[in-house]
Amino acid sequence: MTAPLPLLAASDWGIAVAIAVILLLFLAVGWVILQGTRAQLYWRRRVEEGDVEAIRMLVADEVARWKTMRMPRGAAPAAWHGVQGAELVDISPDRVRVNASAEGQYAGMGAERRETSSPLQEAMAVTARLAEMLLYDIPNVRLPYAQVDVYSTYRDEHGAAQRCILSTIASREVADNLDWDEMTPEEIVRGLGGRFSLDDRGNALPIDPDAVGPSGVPAVFYKDD
Asked: pTM for this structure?
């Protein structure tokens, strides 16, 4: 006659249940990772194939997310405000283009307020931040170029209007050789070949962001090897 199987002690049942739960958790996490990886590969393949609608969706979602992000530690408030106000203008298989705004910054000095940072300086700070984010911070999108056009306010007899004062076509090939952590926004913009124009007093003049011609700042600053 076969002897009856011994019953598991309560502690043994507890261990068995714990092991089963752990295995189920591992399976669930593995499934989520697998599905996430498949989704990443799917979107990357569409981007590599030049699917403009896929690129537009991914870029638009990320630009919209920036508008609600908390300001990163160490970021200049005015530049981050420019990032959060950026508008997506155009998408192509090799380029993303955005518009942003920048205004001069002022501080009280005695009985008056003086300009502490010009509109062009602020435009360079916005451009440097946006160019870096467009080239490196959009998941599954690594386009060769990112164009950033920054506008500032001009007033005349017809009222106030914003005109472009800085236009930059950031090439990934050049950007990969810039020392983003050590260079100033102006050095980054010059390195990327940003276009701007100044009057005799050093004030930024309106420019045509669609004009084709040599950059007004041809110097390129590369990081040390």
From this structure: 0.74
Domain that holds residue 72: 50-205
The residues, ordered by sequence, that sit 6+ positions from 60 with a Cβ below 8 Å of its Cβ are: 88
- Residue 25 inside a domain? The answer is no
Strands 112-117 and 95-101: unpaired
143 assigned to some structural domain: yes
The per-residue pLDDT for range 152-194, each reduced to its tens digit, is: 998 776 777 889 999 999 999 999 999 999 999 999 999 999 9
* 61: in domain: yes
Taking the C-alpha atoms of residue 103 and residue 196, their distance in angstroms, rounded to an integer, is 15
Is 34 inside a domain boundary? no
The strand pairing partners of 95, in sequence order, are 92, 145
Amino acid identity of 2? T
For residue 13, report the phi and psi dihedrals to the nearest 5 degrees: -65, -40
What is the tally of structural domains in the chain?
A: 1
**Cβ atoms 115, 104 nearer than 8 A:** yes
Rounded to an integer, what distance in angstroms lies between the CA atom of residue 49 and that of residue 69? 30
Instruction: Output the CA–CA distances (angstroms, integers) from residue 53 to 18, 47, 56, 86, in the order listed.
Output: 47, 9, 5, 20
Q: What is the pLDDT of residues 13-41, one digit of tens each?
A: 667 666 767 777 766 666 566 555 655 55
Antiparallel, parallel or unpaired: β 95-101 and 87-92: antiparallel
